[in-house]
Design a protein that fits this description.
The protein is α+β, with helices and mostly antiparallel strands. The protein contains four helices and nine strands. The strands form three sheets. A four-stranded antiparallel β-sheet has the order 1-2-3-4. The protein has a three-stranded antiparallel β-sheet with strand order 5-6-9. The two termini are 40 Å apart.
């Protein structure tokens, strides 16, 4: 008879649990979902990012947890849904996890936003960062009419375009998310980039 080991949030590193708890968004649920996706694997680095969006009648919350293990990138997304979306059934949350082998990750892109670059202080890297990670599941196609160097030309030159991998993109702002979250994002991106290199 085999015994199935139940994985609980108690198996998560304290720093990860603290970051999920500090985000303040269903921490017990998010910890359990992350622990189930990890299955006891070692956490090398992590990033917790909360996002709040507004539409005409609803405030929506979303949390993304990215975890680097020795062999995988684990993503957990949790969203809440209000009673208006559930036809009187009350509010609920959806939690989705995805596991990507590191061998499948195609790249990590960092876009730093630096205000007042004339007075840039070495080592500061600005107050805002967008981390984009691609592994080929989602791609964005940008098309625009092609042209030639002749300004008088009226011929149809077709289209030019680019295909960009865009599986997950997180925008972290020190002003909105705090300096600690921004620094954690930089550390996570560096750890993931290093893991892809070797």
């Amino acid at each position: 008879m085999s015994v199935t080991r139940q994985v609980t949030s108690a198996s998560l590193p304290k720093a990860l649990v603290d970051d999920i708890s500090n985000a303040g968004y269903y921490p017990a649920l998010v910890c359990d979902v992350v622990a189930a996706a990890l299955g006891g694997d070692q956490v090398v680095s992590h990033l917790v990012h909360c996002e709040t969006t507004f539409d005409a009648t609803t405030v929506r919350r979303h949390i993304t947890v990215l975890i680097l293990t020795p062999s995988r990138l684990v993503l957990a997304h949790t969203d809440d849904h209000g009673p208006a979306e559930t036809e009187g059934a009350g509010s609920f949350a959806t939690a989705t996890t995805e596991t990507v082998p590191l061998t499948a990750v195609r790249g990590v892109m960092l876009a730093h936003v630096v205000a007042d670059p004339e007075n840039y202080e070495p080592g500061s890297l600005g107050r805002e960062l967008t981390v984009t990670i691609g592994w080929g599941t989602v791609s964005r196609v940008d098309l625009m009419p092609a042209s030639c160097a002749d300004p008088e030309c009226e011929a149809d030159h077709g289209y030019d375009g680019t295909i960009t991998g865009d599986d997950v993109a997180l925008r972290i702002s020190a002003d909105a998310d705090g300096d600690a979250v921004l620094q954690q994002a930089v550390r996570f991106a560096a750890a993931l980039s290093a893991a892809l290199a070797g």
